[in-house]
Amino acid sequence: MTTEIFQGAASADEGPLVIARQGYFFVGGQYFEGPDGRYMGGQMYVEFQIPQNLMQPYPIVFFSGGGQSGLNYTGTPDGREGWAQYFLRRGYATYVLDQPARARSPWHPEMGNQTRHSTTRVEQQFTATSRKPLWPQAKLHMQFPGAGIEGDPAFDQYFAQSFPSLASFARQQELNRDAGAALLDRIGPAILLTHSQSGTFGWLVADARPGLVKAILAIEPSGPPVRDNVAKGHPEWFADGPQTKPYGLTAPPLAYDPPLSGPDDLKFVRQDVSEAEGLVRCWSQAEPARELTSLRGIPVLVVQAEASYHAPYDHCTVAYLRQAGVSVDYIRLADLGIHGNGHMLMIEKNSREIAALVEEWVRGKITPKRECQKFCVRGRLTITS
């Protein structure tokens, strides 16, 4: 493999990144009896860094998506700094996670079977979507570094960091909800940044610890609501997948008002026609809609890329949240002149531009000067590790 593309790891224009403290710990997890002794499963690996210039009152907690790990945020396949470094440079402490049963968070057979991503799936869904478009917007993809196919140095680096995942999506949600809540119990109030599959974790952790979640940055969160969408290619484009989210946004329960006795209390309806060409028909609650009790007081940002397989349906997630009383700001990158991104926008060529947009939103929602009256000590914020 050539190394020419891996020369830009440092952000030369900003100088050295100075870290005051860093380390790791595990949260969550339960002991269980195995066939030959006791083991621990469900624990989540957490890597933290606190910048010397700590200026923001709340840390960012980074959840990765399906088949991925915290590496999505600590660098890019072509050697640039990642979103974790970007936020560190702007005065945020960062907590970067590996989901339970993945990467540095151990998997045990007793936790369930695993699935994995092939090169074909990764190329079609994430890195080279324009070569054989499976959804209308896929042809616009141009931001993944390199050719996006096997043998390309950036693709090989990206694919090398793919991990098997638990086959049960519902079980993943339960484990990440519990470990995420344990993390907030330890570090205190934080901002959750989720991507793709982990979008469900953001709703669940906030539901479990609403007082500790200051905002949710949902980067193309798992969707659409209620029932999966299957991208088929031209001319049909879309087909119904299974109903994986009986609670609208998640498989495990969410708190609604009026309260639910079970998922059957939620009634769903579907749009007769899509809102525009190239979009799916959304599912929503039948009126009168219940409100999401824990989420309605938490500011939420949903970011959608132009060419991703989420482009046909992220608006459905936004509509579902708003119908349920949640305050949501919705950014379509293309509307702001940011074009050509696929689903892995945090590692694509213009990832820094997108990070800047997200950070601008955070600063608009959280006022450091006001919060510093409570959290700052001699100009520094106190954060528990």
CATH superfamily: Alpha/Beta hydrolase fold, catalytic domain
The total strand number stands at 18
> Class in CATH?
Alpha Beta
Beta content: 15-25%
Spatial arrangement of strands, main beta sheet: 1-2-4-3-7-8-15-16
Query: What is the ordering of alpha helices and beta strands?
Result: EEEHEEHHEHEHEEEEEEEEHEHHEE
Q: What is the number of domains?
A: 1
Structural class: alpha/beta
What is the oligomer described by this structure? single chain
| CATH-defined topology | Rossmann fold
Low-confidence stretches: 1-10, 371-385
* End-to-end gap: 38 Å
Q: Determine the number of helices (DSSP H or I, runs of at least 4 residues).
A: 8
Instruction: Give the helix proportion (percent range).
Output: 10-25%
What is the alpha-carbon Rg in Å?
A: 20 Å
Biggest sheet descriptor: 8 strands, mixed
The CATH architecture category equals 3-Layer(aba) Sandwich
Anisotropy-based shape:
globular
Mean pLDDT: 92
